[in-house]
Amino acid sequence: FRRLFFIFAFSNFHIFTFVFRRLFFIFAFSNFHIFTFVFRRLFFIFAFSNFHIFTFAQDSSHIRISLLTCTPGEQLYSTFGHTAIRVTDSSSVTDYVFNYGTFNFEDPGFYTKFIRGKLLYYLSVENFNSDKKNMGFKDEYQADNRGITEQVLNMDASEKIALMEALRENAREENRYYKYDYFLDNCTTRTRDILVKYKKDHPGFKHVMPEGTRFRQAIHQYLDKNKKYWSKLGIDILLGAPTDAVMTTAQSQFLPDNLMKSFDSSNQNQQLVLSTANLYPVNQEKAGVSFLTPMAIFSLLLTVIVLLSFSNNKRAQIFIQGFDGIFFFLTGALGILLIFMWIGTDHSMTKNNYNLLWAWPTNTIAAFFVNSKKKWVKKYFGFSVFALIIVLLTWFFLPQQMNNALIPIVLILVFRSALKYLSPRS
User: Fold this and answer.
1) Which secondary structure element, helix H or strand E, spans residue 20, and what is its range?
2) Is the model's pTM score more than 0.85?
3) What's the pLDDT tens digit per position in 279-299?
């Protein structure tokens, strides 16, 4: 039968094909819903079984670009997190991290350059995973119990290649260094700038913090969350009025978390981010409750000084006299430091510091005359009382947000200056 069928079919091929086409269309249209159902199933089976062919046709670069956002660490320099770029190239079997937040402790004059705002940071390149010789980026952060969130970016082949070439060019010895500015030019802003430059047609970034948020308020969130009250005090003393400027959307992205959230919130139809994943679990350790906060310590100091000032005990009076000299000298030295940070450094946020309203450099001289009965000394302390009371009355209305833990310190200055002014002349 098969032999007779093939003989008939080939000898009458034109008749056979004509009849077959007619039967096919009659079946297809009479059973259209069955036909389309079967066709769709066959299409999806083919598509998914050949998914690698489709993706290869869309992106032949074999490169994957990711934004890495690292959680805060224990050290002050890592309190606000970190950002880097991961470049995975499957064709060359490489997996590198490009890190704009690298500095060298061995750099000659490291601390002097750091204080003056002249320390150069640089773009480093390291393996994402550890090898036999060196610990990789991932293991370093995991060892410090710092999490990493990876956002795989949606970039086409030409964009990925251009970005990778730009990163390699920036990593060259003659191009890798830059003058670091924590708020305006840091590892996160550098990462954002190069990603935006080579990502075509990206949507505009949206606000991820409430409108009107200031630089100081943004960093306070991290310091308060991690209960780093003493670090917060030091930062509030050193940073001047520019830190209280309202941030734009772009300026708020100096913080790694804000940049990550900006990419997510602006990710319309996966235009920016293809996928997001936390690379490994992190032990959530709650910061312990500490009662030794600056406000508590300084309030206790104020109480002790007031009590000792009214004591008739000879040792107490000797202690108070010594305390006055040291205390006024230290506040004066702090004032000198603030002036130096204002005019003698390249830091953009240490200018116009209103802490100079209470930390007078002239106190370094007055400290040597705290027990003098001379007329000019009494006038100096009298003027101090008047001026410092005005500072306290306007404390919450100044252009710069002042740290409230400093109020007891200013009260000590007022109280001790008032006693010096009111003490009878010999």
Assistant:
1) helix 13-30
2) no
3) 998 887 776 677 899 999 999
